[in-house]
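User:
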Amino acid sequence: MAAPSSLRLAPREAIALLGEEIARLSQRLLRLEDGIEALCTDDGVTRSDALKHLQEIDVLVQSAEALAGYAQSLASRIGDETPVDIGPLLNALPLRDLANRLGGEEAEGGHHGFELL
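Assistant: Predicted structure:
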């Protein structure tokens, strides 16, 4: 199904849908994690299984890139008229580096490092 050329949503709904899509991405990553664990611990894993997991990684990377671009485009369409207190939301995040970045601070170790808990 092709995306409509024009579709108007309330900002709240558009952001909620973005959140749902990120949750789907997270679930797929969890399944991938289980698959990689099986690859690392099971001698009977086939080359075909390994290739399926590599393809899944590629789809996840493309999905994450697309979601990032969508979120940035969405942000450019939402006005600044109503500031939102995101402090409580940031404080609830389990990853400190992620919370800092979402709060507008510079990343500490580049995006290839480990997240600080």
